[in-house]
Amino acid sequence: MMYEIFCYLHPAELLAISRTNKTLRGVLLRKSARWIWQTSFRNYKNMPEPPTDLNEPQYARLLCDNSCMFCLSPNAPLISWRARLRFCKGCMKTEFIRITDVHDEEDAILIRSFIRDRIHSVGELYSRAQVDNFCAGYNRVRNDEAQASAWLTDQLSIYQRTREVRQRMATILCNKS
Ligand SMILES: [Zn+2]
């Protein structure tokens, strides 16, 4: 019964309810509750399906919760679709870098080609953690042509999926009306 009611709620409401107490958190965040979120997303037709690397609660968190994923400050209007991060202006200064901060020329070229992101009203900006992961991943394969090529192909397909989500999401505001 409770589950059926949940299905009629907006993902933002499900997210809020999952935070009210331990019981409801347990109910909504277990794997077998995915269908509730999926139904909720489907009921709000403007909301595209989550990208494959995010589950529904994570996706709702990114879209509907205005708090910063780093410092939890309530006003975090900035979103990096590529890094799946929502953040505030303060954390932008500590957690993100510009391409000019990358001093290795080869790394800079690859970063711009494979994890490029433009953040609304801010421009091109890269999550530090993501840049570190990307460079570490590339370093592991860079001396082997076949591995490097497979790895970059993989990165490119993730990038294309991100762009698609980003374009679809660009105009959607997550309000309940
Ligand atoms: Zn912050």
From TrEMBL:
Top-level division of the source organism's lineage: Eukaryota
Descriptive protein name: F-box domain-containing protein
Organism in which the protein naturally occurs: Schizophyllum amplum
Lineage of source species: Eukaryota, Fungi, Dikarya, Basidiomycota, Agaricomycotina
